[in-house]
Amino acid sequence: MKSKRYKKLKENKIDSKAEIFEKILPEVKKNCTTKFNESIDLSLFINVKQKKGDVNLRTVINLPEGTGKKVKVAVVCEESKQKEAKEAGADVVGGDEFIDKIKSGDLNFEKLISTPTMMLKLSKLGKILGPKGLMPNPKLGTVSEDVKKAVSDAKSGQIELKNDKDGNIGLTIGKKSFSDEKLIKNFNAVIETLEKEKLNSNVKGDLIKSAYLTSTMGLSYKLKIGKVI
Predict the structure, then answer these.
(1) CA 70: distance to chain centroid?
(2) Over the stretch 157-207, which tens digit does the pLDDT of each residue have?
(3) Domains of the chain: residue spans and CATH
C-alpha cells in the first residue's frame, strides 16, 4: 500500500518524457521528503545483446565528489604493508589469520582489498566471497601492491559499474544534501566512463538503451543520456 507522501509525489510529477539531467535533478530533490538524507540514484539499461557476443560491463568509477556513504574497507596483505593500510584508513587489516576468519564466514566489511601475493590464498575462497561480490579483482583496483592508493580510492567514492544478465545497472551518485554542482560532477564522471567502455567494447549503436534518475524514496524520471556542459 502506497503512503500518502508517495501519492502526493505522484500527483505533482512532471511530464514523463525524457529530459536532460540538469532539468530533472531539481524535481528529484524536491521529492526527497523523508526525514533522512536520501541517495540520488541512476538506473541504466544497456544494450547487452550483440552479434559478436553479449556485452558485460564491469569497471570502477572514482566519483570526484564521493557518494556520501561510509564504506567499511578490509585489507589482506603482508605484515610489512599492514601499517600502511591502517594509516590509509582501512577498517580491518590482517594476513593469514584474517583469511581464516573470512573462511569461517566472518565478512564484516563492504569492500576487500588484497596484495597480489595474498591473492593466491584468497582465490581459494571464491565460493564465500564470489556470491557477495567481495572477491578482489585487479581490473577493479582491489588487487594492488599500492595498498595506500587502493584504500584511498575505496574510501573516497569509488563505485563499481556492473550490469546484470538483463542489462540493468544501478548506482548512487550522491545524496540529497549534495549541491547540484557536486551531483553534476559525479554524473559526468559516470557518462565519461560509459563512453570509454563503449569504445573498448563491440557495441553497435547506442550502449545505453534507457536511463532513469530517482531518489531512495522518490519517483523515477526518464533521463536523456549526455554530459552536462
Answers:
(1) 13
(2) 899 888 888 889 999 999 999 999 999 999 999 999 988 887 777 667 778
(3) 15-67+158-222 (3.30.190.20), 73-155 (3.40.50.790)
